[in-house]
UniProtKB/TrEMBL annotation:
Residues 24-181 form the HPP transmembrane region domain. It comes from Flavobacterium petrolei. The chain crosses the membrane at residues 30-50, 56-74, 83-102, 150-171. Keywords: Membrane, Transmembrane, Transmembrane helix. The keyword Transmembrane helix applies. It holds the Pfam family TM_HPP. This is HPP family protein.
Length: 203
């Protein structure tokens, strides 16, 4: 009975968040657009100026999915920094590990990487749906990506995730209606830091 209540409560909360985030509010849509544009744009810029002649290394498909959550549904538990960073890193590690130690049979490696990622994200409370794509890319991506080995965890995954997060911390807090992350301690810390840099009036 308790579990059923928790599921219903979680469903109602998610439904409310999705409803609230998709209301026609042009100001909010503007900041969501600008944040995602700059976040993905910075990663693409890094890619085009660092490795112009190679395969896409910094820009992977799962970052697009993360942008939907991190800039478009910022109140969602799945979009919080812990989930964004932890979900991608755990999934990347699992994806690379599966590719290294399991025979390169796509019908085996692909579902194994995704399924293990889901379980480990659940266990660590870092569930982030795009993480499944990050794991999948590690086992089905190009040879350039596969040859990265565990370096894939740091670049493109960690590099890209930190860029998306840094941009989100700026653009998701541009109006009083947008607060990211939802953790109150972060905003208390931010206010304390801001107050330190305020110029005190002369006595």
């Amino acid at each position: 009975m308790n579990t059923k209540y928790k599921i219903k409560r979680s469903y109602r909360k998610t439904k409310y968040i999705l409803y609230k985030e998709t209301l026609v509010d042009f100001k909010e849509h503007f900041w969501a657009f600008l944040g995602s544009f700059i976040g993905i744009g910075l990663i693409a810029f890094l890619q085009s100026h660092t490795l112009p002649q190679s395969d896409v290394i910094y820009l992977i498909g799962s970052f697009g999915a993360s942008s939907v959550l991190v800039y478009g549904v910022i109140q969602s538990p799945l979009a919080q920094p812990r989930n964004l960073i932890g979900g991608h890193l755990i999934s990347a590690i699992i994806g690379v590990t599966v590719y290294k130690f399991v025979p390169d049979i796509v019908w085996l490696t692909a579902p194994l990487a995704v399924s293990l990622s889901i379980v480990f994200m659940q266990m660590t409370k870092t569930l982030h749906p795009p993480g499944g794509a990050t794991a999948l890319i590690a086992v089905t991506g190009s040879n350039e990506i596969k040859n990265l080995g565990y370096w894939y965890v740091f670049s493109p995954v960690l590099t890209g995730v930190l860029i998306l997060l840094a941009v989100a911390l700026v653009f998701n807090n541009m109006t009083s209606n947008r607060q990211y992350p939802t953790h109150k301690k972060y905003h208390q810390f931010r206010k304390r830091v801001a107050s330190v840099f305020k110029i005190k009036p002369n006595d």
